[in-house]
Amino acid sequence: MLVLGLLLMACAAAFAGLLIAYNLSGGPDYTVTLLGSTPFTINTLGAFLGGIALTLIFGLGMWMLLAGTALARHRSKKGRRQRETARQATAERDMMADRLDERGGSTVDEAAGHRRPAMHRPQWMRSHGH
After folding, report:
1. Rounded distance, CA 24 to CA 30, Å?
2. Which of 9, 11, 17, 118 is packed most tightly, with the most Cβ within 10 A?
3. Across the strands, what pairs with 31?
4. What residues are paired with 42 via a beta bridge?
5. Which UniProt keywords apply (predicted)?
6. Contacts by 18-22 with C-beta closer than 8 Å and gap 24+?
C-alpha cells in the first residue's frame, strides 16, 4: 500500500507537470500536447475538471502512503510487544524452574503434574558405584 500510494502520487504529479510544461498557450479551447502528440482538445471546464481529477488522484496516493506508513508502524510495535512478552514469559519460566530445582530437585515436568517414575537400580549396581 505504501509503494502503491507513492507510485500513484508520482504518476499524478508527473502527468500534471508534463501537461503544464507543454501547454502554456491560452484560448477558449486547448489542444493538449503531450510528449510530441496531440491526444485531444479540451475546453476550460474540461481543464478545470481534469485538474480536480489529478488532485484527487494525488490525494488518494498521499492517503495510501500515510495509511501504509501507519500500518507498518503498528505492525512493528505489535511485533516488539510480542517479543517482549515472550522474553518475559521465558524468564519467568526459567526462574520458576530454578526455584523448583532449589526446593528439592523437582523438575519442570513434576511441576506440571508429570512425575517421572523412580529409577530402581538392581542391588549389584548400587553396591559397585554404577
Report:
1. 9
2. 9
3. 41
4. 30
5. Membrane, Transmembrane, Transmembrane helix
6. 19/50
